[in-house]
Amino acid sequence: PGVRRRRGTQMPPCRGRITFIARMRRCPGRRSTPVATPRYVYALNPTAASVARIDPTSLAIEAIPVGPRPIGLAALPDEDAAVVLSLDDGSLSVLDSRTLPTKVTRVALRRQYARLTVSADGAWAAAWPDPAAAPASGAEGIFALVDLKKVRAGTAGAVEERAGGYRITDVLFRIENDVATKLYVFAKSTVSTFDLAAGTPLP
Prior knowledge:
The protein is mainly β. Helices cover 6% and strands 41% of the residues. It is built from 2 helices and 16 strands. The protein has helices at residues 20-26, 148-153, and strands at 35-36, 41-45, 50-54, 61-65, 70-75, 81-86, 91-96, 103-108, 115-118, 124-128, 142-147, 159-163, 170-176, 179-186, 191-195, 200-201. The strands form 4 sheets. The chain has a 4-stranded antiparallel sheet with strand order 1-2-3-4, with helices on one face. The protein has a 4-stranded antiparallel sheet with strand order 5-6-7-8. A 4-stranded antiparallel sheet has the order 9-10-11-12. Strand 2 (41-45) and strand 3 form a beta hairpin. The longest helix has 7 residues, at 20-26. The radius of gyration is 18 Å and the shape is globular. Residues 1-30 have low confidence and may be disordered.
């Protein structure tokens, strides 16, 4: 039986694991919508600390464990892979479903971030604080730049913290000849440019 809604009342909080897709539609607080890759669809299941990999042909579902409270999700281009940002443990996970079961590679970000941007070439990710909320763990003006190639290879030094200015509002990657070359970090009153080849701010 469905839940009846009375005037002046709110719907009950979303619960359960099986109906995570329906929950995401009904609960506007979920930031990330499902993303599609060549063969699969990925969807966050925050209450179960997992991501669902859905095969739209067979309707088979794989529950992929990630860090608690996954909040950001992005597909990597031209392959069956995705990037997930988890808030509670401050981690980033790369999901590789080219072979099954999905391979998960997780790295710590040192702080809690609530926003995720991935470059169009799939080489970089940036995690940054929610500009509408107080930053956690001293993250004001700080963002994490993640080299996804190093993460997938298990190489050290994949995560670097950078200062992007007070109250970061947006992060954009510049693509030249299909390669991410620069990162623009927009803050409340500043714009910072980072050269991805050199790893240092440009004047």
